[in-house]
Amino acid sequence: MAHTCAYARRRVRWIEVWYSVVVVPVPAGFADARSFNSALAVELGRLHTRRAAPIDQTLQGGTQTAAGLFDRDVREIGLLRDAVQEAVADYIKSLPTDAQHPFLSRRDSEFHFSGSWSCRLASGGFHTNHIHEEGWISSAYYAALPDLGAGGEGALNFGQSSLALGAEDRPGRTVQPQVGKLVLFPSYYWHGTTPFRAEQSRLAVAFDGIPDALAASIRRRRPDADPAALIADGWAGARDMISALTDAGLSKFVVRPAVPPESLEDFIAGFASELMPLQT
């Protein structure tokens, strides 16, 4: 029992060390955070054109926009991108240096967005517990929220896997969403959300970032290409990329994680379930 309790305490400290909650400054041209986020929510709403949740994502009971949100020529989205870029730069500066650590060893003063999208959850919706294989730093920014009350509904939970590993496999830290709040964390952190019941939807923006050194190595090999176009955004992005390449006449591929996966076994299992069916 003592060993189990000690493990649980270490796990909570581990989660707390490198996640950060930031209130994003109000962009120029807006009187306050409420007016900015209201305008942002309107523009994001225009992009949620799908009627059902994607079948290959963690989102359950809602809709998700296509990847490349930050590439859109929309004023409010561009202002958010600039604001979170500064917040991520400050977050990276706050990280310690450790050449032996798989996350900290990639610490770089610059970073590149490898994916960005918006999620809209309806009443009863949630995200299953997951990690982001394609990222180094991941995030959640809240643009519009229902009244979630004080019971933890709609919360962002860290530390519980999707593997049902027993009594200790439970959230180690919970963050209650607030409009204008940005949560940053290592992409290998397990995270998911608690379902909620409300008439209004839960509207968020998420993105992944990779160290600029990785993006620079891609640019050296392919100076004409955007790294985001060469690094697949999750398994769905990998399937789309492989399909496009096979349509162009290619037939053999090497698939590798852009950053070290938390579990090589999980990566191999994901490869087998998500990409092997494409084999002909």
| Uncertain stretches | none
N-C termini distance: 51 Å
The structural class is: alpha+beta
How many β-strand runs?
9
CATH class of the largest domain: Mainly Beta
The CATH homologous superfamily of the largest domain is termed: q2cbj1_9rhob like domain
Q: In the residues, how many domains can be counted?
A: 2
Molecular structure report:
There is one protein chain. This protein has 280 residues and is an alpha+beta fold. It has two domains: 2-213, Jelly Rolls; 220-278, no CATH class. The chain is 32% helix and 21% strand. It has seven helices and nine strands. The protein has helices at 2-18, 33-47, 75-94, 212-221, 227-230, 234-247, 264-274, and strands at residues 20-23, 59-64, 111-127, 137-144, 156-158, 173-175, 181-186, 191-193, 202-211. The strands form two sheets. A six-stranded antiparallel β-sheet has the order 1-7-4-9-3-2. A three-stranded antiparallel β-sheet has the order 6-5-8, with helices on one face. The longest helix has 20 residues, at 75-94. The radius of gyration is 19 Å and the shape is globular. The model has no long low-confidence stretch (mean pLDDT 84).
